[in-house]
Amino acid sequence: MKSSAVKLGLLVCLLAGTAQAQYFGRNKVQYESFDFAVIHTAHLDVYHYPRESEGAWEAARMGERWYYRLSDLLDYQMRETQPLILYANHADFQQTNVISGLISQGTGGVTEGMKQRIVLPLTGIHSENNHVIGHELVHGFQFDIMGRVGGGLGGGVQMPLWFIEGLAEYLTLGSRYPLTAMWLRDAVLNEEVPSIDDISGDPRYFPYRYGHALWAYIAAEWGDQAVPALFSSVAYLGWEDGFQNVLGISLDSLSARWQEAVRNTYQPEIENRTPPGEVGKAILTGGEGFNLGPVLSPDGQYVAFLSRRDIFTIDLYLAYAETGEVITRLVGSASDAHFDALSFMNAAGTWSPDGDRFAFVVFRKGDNEIALLDVDDRDVERRLKVDGVDAISMISWSPDGRYIAFSASSGGASDLYLWDVQADSARRLTEDRYSQVQPSWSPDGRTLAFATDRGGDTDLDLLQFGNMKIGLYDMDTQQIRLVYMDERTKHINPHFSPDGTRLYFIANPRGFSDVYYYAPAEDRFYQVTRIATGITGLSDLSPALSVSRQTGRLAFSLFNDTDYDIHTMTHEEAAGEPFDPEAEPVPADLPPPGGQTTEVDEYLASPALGLPSGEEFTVSDYNPSLGLNYVTQAGAGVAVDRFGASVGGGVLLLFGDMLGNYQLGVAVQSSGGLADIGGEAFYLNRNHRFNWGVGLGHIPYLTGSVSTSLDTVSVGGQPTLARETQLVLQRVFVDRASLLGEYPISTNRRWEFSGGYTRISYDYELETITSVGGFIIDQQTMELDQPSALNLGSASGAYVGDYSFFGFTSPVRGSRFRYELEGTFGDLNFLTALADYRRYFFFNPFTLAFRAMHLGRYLEDAESDRLTPLYLGFQTLVRGYEIGSFDLTECAQAGEDLTDCPQIDRLIGSRLGVGNLELRIPLFGTSQFGLINFPYLPTEIVGFLDGGVAWTNTEQPTWEFSQSSTARVPVFSSGAAARVNVLGALILQVYVAWPFQRPEKNTQWGFLISPGW
């Protein structure tokens, strides 16, 4: 009994030390330390650091204007000042500690729920900054409203994503937006206009675009006054009742009316336009993952492009431009040792004039760099790091090969730069507050064409930003000339033809995004495509067009059936038809047909309304004081009876600063008397790349046993039969102080360190209660002998790598490893060694997974009976040998000791070796990853083979395969399992195993809540 308690306490102590850091997982690396200050406005606190100060001041003015617009429309004032945390670029944004998880390139901003903090990067494009700030501020209002009506953070659970995100899009974009209209036209063209139920649950329907269209329809039909009423009603009454209460119709009726309006609006528009599959020649189409950012080689034979062909990452590929046959993957973004990731949202690469090298933008060590790839060797031969810029987007190699032009942001605005490849230096071409992106060289190298928001419709003082136009930068005079159809049209992605007689670009003068060109000699525009959907990339400003420098072949990405395809067109086919920019443009109105201008449209057209000058703003240094983030598991109870007092309940409090760099957690729990109150506290400092923390804890573990017997006692001088109850209470107290550190080398690898001191003490007592006829006549308590306390110190170091990609229930591609040593010293001295390597071979959609692991204790006290031995038969190691599944009939007795069971003993030791092999098959999933397209309950079917061996320093294994031997032989099992992802919250696993070394047992069933290894 005493030995068991000692083992339990020490086991808990050892596990507590390893649980402080995640076993695997990628890392968020804070490459830089940011010196934040705060701009205080009437309703916002804007956090920023020096190099983005000018952009932050603009953002503060934008934020106040959005607050005025939204609070007026929603008729609502926030209860607290809204935090707005800005980063100078996306690479810096990905280092934020406000959001705990990794941030993808596609995330333009986040509003988190604990402190309603808005966090976003400046993009260098004013219109994008303005939209994202407004979008995220809508979420701030949504959180505040839900908290006030009683829903809190949980109030949004019943709201589908389209309802949340679509409202943010409508309130910041209004009822006219070409990108949303394109998605709806595509749905009409493919006869797949979704219902509200479809948009609510089917991942094929992008909630931002369809949600935007639905809210625009509701506002047009019921007026903008219905917007705040509907949101609050749904938060308070629930989904169905909320709609019925405000709109007076059911969701089904609303859905049917909206679908009809979508068809009536767009069917006439697409009838006289070319279906996307018939535009030019399709070379790379859907089904293999979207295909984006085509870049033709100078001779037009090859096209480099970005694609998610392997499902999990966006990589750079090379294909033949004539046929689309993929030649090779040039760069894998997640595993290349030269950089952390490819930049794909607003960037495309460029070929050297001789076609031998390809340059592209990458993320590396918290910055953007330009990587130069040798195409034949597929090796990154050089990286160009530009000092003084925050982010790099589009790049273009000059015709003579000496320069690379690129657009980069600094301080919140984007400008044009030149990198001199020979001199290995950069210089700035433009320096103003306008946005300048997507540079492209003329054939003679004397002109740079680019996209810019400069022009008469942009007023930087009023923060009014016009549509993008084509700018022409004269390299000799350094003068800029604008080329555009009209100010209501977006112009992006310019490219010259080989002879310079055509300047191709993408524009949307009538709400449709098509390829056009400008003929300088004629001073005339020509329309090349007339597509029913649109020529586009992922975002409104993503590059989607390329022109071969020698042949004039065009390559472009287009939207088709909710995917992105790449088509080509020869120079002759791209002759186009004359286009009259004076013709009245048709705005991209969202349904219903002929909808009226809404209040949202009106405030979007009034930039001065609610815009502060900024002179009233104040600035202070950032004070990283701790504030309460949240409280959970709150609750307590006190009970008093004749047996004494007991306390039950617990509470966890998490404190943090506004930037998430410092965290303090305190937890208190009790499940018995006052002696059973325990607690833990930890402090974590993530302000620099090296993260460190300290922890303190006092944890009591209470176990007990009860026995009863009959005895004769004297009551009033008469012998009386009495019941004697003996209650043995065993308390183990674990007091621990720990220190941990973590140094991420990259997003995939890190070093971990920890150390600590642990004291394990004991308190055993015996309580004897004598009762007659249900009445207590005597009660005595006495202390029992107990083991002496254990005092242990520990220190550990681990090298951890994670290059894996997770499917719905388990990793399906890549590799993972963890190599760790932990020394324990004091009353016990031993060394724990761990080596765990896992590899996942992906054969779409199947995965062959392999694991090899060793866990062992070494040195003088490795075999101490005060340590809980290691056990091989856990469900996560070798299935089919769970300790609770054995019975005495399986134990082949060895000698006269009836407690000896070699079938169990061979599973126990101080050292373990484990090997696992699994074939993972995604049964239910998505169209891209799953045999059956049923994303609502992703399920993986597994065939497995497990094997392992346990041994000690004195009992070595017998290396033979035997089903009947009682020796310490390796044990194996095979079987099948099913893993089910339940609503993304937990993974349930059920399996059946055939344990080879248990011949009396044909099968063993098991169940656990755990993802696959």
Please give the share of residues in helix: 10-25%
Cα-atom Rg, whole angstroms? 34 Å
Rounded mean pLDDT is 89
| Beta content | 35-45%
Q: Span from first to last CA?
A: 35 Å
Q: Outline the low-pLDDT stretches.
A: 1-20, 636-647
Shape label: globular
Could you give the count of β-strands? 55
Counting H and I runs of at least 4 residues, what is the number of helices?
Answer: 13
Which structural category fits the helices and strands? alpha+beta
Biggest beta sheet summary: 20 strands, mixed
Annotate the secondary structure layout.
Blueprint: H1 2-18, E1 37-40, E2 44-48, H2 53-74, E3 82-87, H3 90-93, E4 110-111, E5 118-121, H4 126-149, H5 161-173, H6 178-189, H7 196-201, H8 207-222, H9 226-237, H10 239-247, H11 251-271, E6 281-284, E7 291-296, E8 302-307, E9 315-320, E10 326-331, E11 341-342, E12 350-351, E13 357-364, E14 367-374, E15 379-384, E16 391-397, E17 403-410, E18 413-420, E19 425-428, E20 436-441, E21 447-452, E22 469-474, E23 480-483, E24 491-496, E25 503-507, E26 514-519, E27 524-527, E28 534-535, E29 545-547, E30 554-560, E31 563-569, E32 577-579, H12 599-604, E33 618-621, E34 627-632, E35 636-641, E36 644-656, E37 662-672, E38 677-685, E39 691-715, E40 718-744, E41 749-772, E42 775-783, E43 790-802, E44 805-806, E45 811-826, E46 830-843, E47 846-858, E48 870-871, H13 902-905, E49 908-909, E50 911-925, E51 932-933, E52 939-951, E53 971-982, E54 986-995, E55 1004-1009
Parallel strand pairs: 2-3, 3-5, 50-51
Antiparallel strand pairs: 1-2, 1-33, 4-5, 6-31, 7-8, 8-9, 9-10, 11-13, 12-13, 13-14, 14-15, 16-17, 17-18, 18-19, 20-21, 21-22, 22-23, 24-25, 25-26, 26-27, 27-32, 28-30, 29-30, 30-31, 34-36, 35-36, 36-37, 37-38, 38-39, 39-40, 40-41, 41-42, 41-43, 43-45, 44-45, 45-46, 46-47, 47-50, 48-49, 50-52, ...
Helix pairs in contact: 2-4, 4-5, 4-9, 5-8, 6-8, 6-11, 9-10
